[in-house]
Amino acid sequence: MTHATSMGLDSRKLAFWTFIGSECLLFGSLISTYLVYKGQSVVGPYPHEILNIPVTSLSTFDLLASSLWMVLALAAVQRGDMKWAKIWLLGVAIGGLIFLGFQVYEFTSFVHEGLTLQRNLFGASFFLLTGTHGAHVAVGVIWMLTLWVQALRGRLGPQNAITVEIAGLYWHFVDVVWIIIFTLVYLLQ
Amino acid sequence: MESATHTEGSGHPTAGTYLRVFAVLFVITVVEVGVFYVPAFKPLLAPVLLTLSAAKFALVVMFYMHLKQDSKFFTFVFGGPLLLASAVMIGLLFLFGVFVLGG
Amino acid sequence: MSNPPSTGLRSWLTTTDHKRIGTLYFWTAFAFFLIGGLEALIIRAQLAQPDGSLVSADTYNQLFTMHGTTMVFLALMPMTAAFFNWIVPLQIGARDVVFPRLNAFSYWVFLLGGLFMNASFLIGAAPDGGWFGYVNLTGPQYSPGLNIDFWVLGLQILGVASLAAGFNFIVTILNLRAPGLTMMRLPVFSWMTLVTQFLVITAFPVITVALVFLLFDRTFGTNFYVPAAGGDPVLWQHLFWIFGHPEVYILILPAMGIVSEVLPTFSRKPLFGYTVVVYSGVLIGFMGWGVWSHHMFSVGLGPIADSFFAAATMLIAIPTGVKIFNWIATLWGGQIRFTTAMKFAVGFIAMFIIGGLSGVSHASPPSDLQQTDTYYVVAHFHYVLFGGTVLGLFAGMYYWIPKMTGRLLSERLGSWHFWLTFIGMNLTFFPMHFIGLLGMPRRIYTYAPELGLGTMNLVSTIGAFVIGLGTLALVINVLWSRRHGEPAGPDPWGGATLEWSIPSPPPPHNFDVIPTVTSRLPRWTTEHPAAPSAPGSAVHVPPGSWWPLVAAAGLPIMASAVVTKLLALVFLGAAVLVFGIYRWAYEPFEV
Fold this sequence. Notes:
Number of helices of chain A: 6
Shape of chain C: globular
Oligomer: heterotrimer
CATH superfamily of the largest domain in chain C: Cytochrome c oxidase-like, subunit I domain
CATH superfamily of chain A: Cytochrome c oxidase, subunit III, four-helix bundle
CATH architecture of chain A: Up-down Bundle
Radius of gyration of chain C: 24 Å
CATH topology of the largest domain in chain C: Cytochrome C Oxidase, Chain A
CATH topology of chain A: Four Helix Bundle (Hemerythrin (Met), subunit A)
Shape of chain A: elongated
């Protein structure tokens, strides 16, 4: 945008906030379904038999930490410190990959223990909710890597910090969704 | 770009603020997981955990997503749908007879 | 005035000009409107007499399903989008929407989604589970064919188009207003567009989730809606109507916006109670979220839920009624000119009142239980969606097509169009109130002569064909006037808003100089200030782009994987989508 906007707000950022608002309804519907179907499965495995709190706590810390790296990346880009910007951006991507690794491990072990999409309602609603979240993380990882490559090529700097800020909004939103999922799905069994 | 970004609050928090917020998030998460393993908390688990995760949610949104010092309009664009989603969720839980979360 | 490629197929495939995209939306939606209308005529021909035998039960199911789906998602919503595209940037004094390529993407996704869904006719497997797609009828057990897959995937694709357009128009209206055009000076049509788009971006994710569940039940054998596994088909109904009721307002609010522009212009009076009309629209948008279960009273949700949703539904009649009184008060004492646009706008008020009143009559659960699934409901929502939305859109066509093409539509043909449509729709839909209350259920392909409803059904069928004649008059009018219509000039009606301050059709960059707005009715309150007539420097017009079309093509390719059972198509489609997005993101494109 080269001209001033009516609200004095960057258009892409405003668009992205409306997108996040829209995503609230997406995850709201998925979480509602999970909760509505909790305890309705007619065969096991049931949540309390299978959810692995220690492992998921680790991946929760990992995602939380990646959010910290994200804001540090933004701060670095804003002050023109591209060396640290590159490091933090790559860190966020790796944090996301680690989270996805945990999720792959979790899903695989659940399938081994007999919980599949088709097995029961818990499996279906659990995999779809956490899978949708995981897909968001995956998109975020690709986004971060793209920004990182941009930074490596010297095409990222304080002048386009807004692109990093918007990527950050996405990443943090994915993180807060996980904060809710972790509580509602894992801790409140 | 210049004119657009000028007006939105002159500065994001410093790295120090980000770190302090992370420390709080970290501690809350430790408490959450800890509470989960303490049998004495069983009856209070749901309200305690819901409060703690709401606090984490608020911290990330306010500081990491900058809603605290950014334009109030972003808060509106995000908060409106968020409230709507919460209302729909509560409505559905009511309609399906699930009153107590985790009960 | 040359846009980089200004003629030829390529210029249309790569266009990012909101006016051209609006034109594409217009013709595509118009074509789907005719297809949906044709489906309706076959339905009415089948029901013209008892024991009709024109089509089989199976074909009939496909016809009513596709009639509803086509009209809602492929005709009315895109026709409103044609007006959003054409008119909103002009009304707010902008040179384009805020994200021109995203706008092109929305259109291509819509077109390809519509074609994908209608491609099902080619293999004789059009969707046949109703536009509401209730499980478990639409589950794998009772609908094993591809019909419902086409429906599910088509709607998913169309949802992407609507969401992308939603973000685009919200930001456009909020952020690209001309200097001085405060929110409380914003023309009501643009206001209602804004409310509509907020409903779109919040309601569509819910249907997306509901459809994903259904897709998984059908494709991967999950049990979301399978009672034997503890699943609940009522969950589908809730999710569908949480989306579906806001969707009703997504369809009607733009028409209310159009009428709120047409009535003041042809009464030579400012809209009565502008502020109240705007806030009523916002309130309708909010309250539209709290009434969804009134579509489900017959499920038996219990007295508390029934009472809540009944009360909320009755309450929502208040802001709607407020608007109607404001429109009538706008007419009061005005210098009324009964142009075709005005006739349709006044027709809108009258028909919408009837539809609104029958709507309130099924806000009450005991009364609703007598009406659910009968033709009474069909009568109600056609008074709202045809008498409301379609008449409103027709008003918009006569009002704004001169701005789009530079030529007026024929008032003479327009008068034929109006009267045939108006009489036809009342002949068609009014008897349905009685047909329904006398016990004829919806969605049955034939009925027995003993029911004694043959005459009224025949009247209804005749009415439908009268509407068809009226629509023919519209088609002739639109085509004829493109070459032979009277030149419109910049402002044929003496309109108050900014779109009438520029030539018809507008140049690619719309405004030579972005106007400064000082009132709610800039054209009526300003005595043409000595504005500079030429821009200080050449106005930059963005070039076209191929990438929105390429990215959009990825979605139907992915969807084809489900109906062809070829997994590779998922990856191919995703690759096309990602490739398109990356080229798009890295393309130099200065707005």
